[in-house]
Amino acid sequence: MNCEIIAIGSELLTPFRSDTNSLFLTERLNKLGVQVAFKTIVGDRQQDLVDQVRIALNRADIVITMGGLGPTVDDLTREAVAEALGFRLKRDQAIVGALYARFAARRIQMTDNNSRQADVIDGAIILENPNGTAPGQWLDIVYNTHRKLVLLLPGPPHELKSLFDAQCLPRLTETLPKRHIATRTLKATMIGESVADARIAPIYNQYKDVETTILAHMGDIQLNLICGKPLIELAQARVDELAGRIEDELGDLIYSSQGESLEQIVLYYLEMRGATLATAESCTGGMMAQRLTSISGSSRSYLGGAVVYSNELKTAFAGVPTETLALYGAVSREVATALAEGIRQRSNASIGVGITGIAGPNGGTEEKPVGLVYIAVADDQQTEVVEKRFGGDRERIRQWSTQQALDLVRRRLM
Amino acid sequence: MNCEIIAIGSELLTPFRSDTNSLFLTERLNKLGVQVAFKTIVGDRQQDLVDQVRIALNRADIVITMGGLGPTVDDLTREAVAEALGFRLKRDQAIVGALYARFAARRIQMTDNNSRQADVIDGAIILENPNGTAPGQWLDIVYNTHRKLVLLLPGPPHELKSLFDAQCLPRLTETLPKRHIATRTLKATMIGESVADARIAPIYNQYKDVETTILAHMGDIQLNLICGKPLIELAQARVDELAGRIEDELGDLIYSSQGESLEQIVLYYLEMRGATLATAESCTGGMMAQRLTSISGSSRSYLGGAVVYSNELKTAFAGVPTETLALYGAVSREVATALAEGIRQRSNASIGVGITGIAGPNGGTEEKPVGLVYIAVADDQQTEVVEKRFGGDRERIRQWSTQQALDLVRRRLM
């Protein structure tokens, strides 16, 4: 079974907005064994919409539209789908009544155009939308002798998601041929995408029944394994077997075998060991702190730290001796060490991290170029410092630096 | 003139990847007076591609494909476009030679499949790609009696962007009817999108020749004004006049009239006043520091600060008295004040900021619910504290809190 997703709205054809709803729908559909074969974005023009719905009906088993169900003149999806199918629209008085009640409850006068949201395509099942005024519609029809499902969904993400899960998932599960899908997500870090792929492709190529996707972003590699079988046990066994072989190959480059983020893993290890962490960041300017504290519950293991952009604050907050700064410069192995050890001591944390480097685009020299970063991790036994030369722009250098720092903490705790 | 952008690649039909190249292309095309009418994503299947290129040729003046130009069997764009047009492919020996030279320079053996990248559609101009192995192609053709431009571009963003700017922009400027486009971007903050729209819609609706787009993200409102006229002076005058009237209406809610970010504006004001800033963050966990230091040159005015997640660090790094913590709790007006004043004093900054709150999803009480945040700004004259109750999830509460804090600093410096 394949699907075409049509996102509707002229704002999605500007430089400022992109469709993200389709990623959510794709994830849900894949788990039901449905592949997304086409995604199309169309503006609020009726003829374009009618043509596109017909194109989609001719090439996909399931056609899902998103958006264009609101009350304004720009909202043309109902009319366009009805026209493409040659079906009529009828105003559903029960929906009109519910709309009036909804507005009355908020003591707002309902304008007439809202009634358009009660126009239902002949034969459609109405999909209630508790988070918005426009209901969705579900059509199970025969088009040119083929059975087709046509779903009209609202555009706002929170409306679409809850409506899809509550109303479409159960219907799709009932309607589609039974297929059981098992998935696993492995994550690795501090390895390039092509290097990772070269090492594991010979393995996953032996599992033609498992779909393997590799995604890389800022030093983070995500491997998604997905397999569909008539029995869930068979699918799970294949996915687990392949995951095990990939874990054997990549070893401790893999930090997560269940999809957790690196921040989550570091916090989990800290808690497991009863350890605490503090950070002193120069070039990453709080990004490591921000990443750790983005996780709820991080306060159990992450105490906090210092953002020490100026040399004075390196001394004041992390106790870096002024002589060390003068002798080696702010970007040096010695200052990274002093930052890690100083913040550890001043915060009474079990582990201290120090990061100093040149994030660019300015401030580099021949000896100390943009991208040079020193990262130190100190505990009560030892302080380890690594020197890295990251490529790319300021954002990338900062991201890779925090990724490396988190990975060093993970390895220290392993 | 209108355009269809076709993004090619099965990975773009997974839940994990979305097309972002098209936003870049749309921005460039709009400035040339070209509207994007359709965006389509197709997988690596030849017949789907051929069909889609034909659909696009029938409904758009300019058809741009992105991706599918590499050396592997999945890269089918050249073949598919040639088939859709009924044109032949010819291998260009000069490109083959350049590929061999490129591989030789890196001391890598070139595999045979790379030669496919030298296959050129009859009549196409070759678009050199200095950042990758696969060149683009430019076709200026007549299809069903209509003149059409067909552009084949590489998929990797850095290849596509530089190739488009270097090779396609000049050709498009020469080919397309002359039209001069003026743009302005205004930014406002701490106002809802619908409230902002309600206030300015009566103004921009009087300027039908200026396209006004409103985007809202995490407390940041961006207003894009764009106008095309035969003379650039006319276009600029209309855009500037509308921008001026919107600025009059929204007053100091507008923080930027040339598109700068709030971080940039705060740093600019700090530098202009010869002032320095330090931060002490609890619930935002370094996000404000990270936002400020994401700007190159921020070290001139931003000294750094403390991430004080634990109560101990609030005292150790920002000098918050333990009695204040005991008496009022960590999330209180008094602790925010002490954080701002303490960090200012310890860092010798002209301005200190303190943020404390409950980012959730856990940790809220009836008295102090999730989303309650206190933000204090201290200088040598006074300390101002605001209490906010932000809605949404952890990420949203943290984003809005830093947005509010940055805006308070901006207002203090105005």
UniProtKB/TrEMBL annotation, chains A, B:
Pfam family, one: CinA
Domain MoaB/Mog: 4-175
Gene3D superfamilies named in the record: 3.30.70.2860, CinA-like, MoaB/Mog-like domain
Lineage: superkingdom: Bacteria
Family: Belongs to the CinA family.
Protein name per its UniProtKB record: CinA-like protein
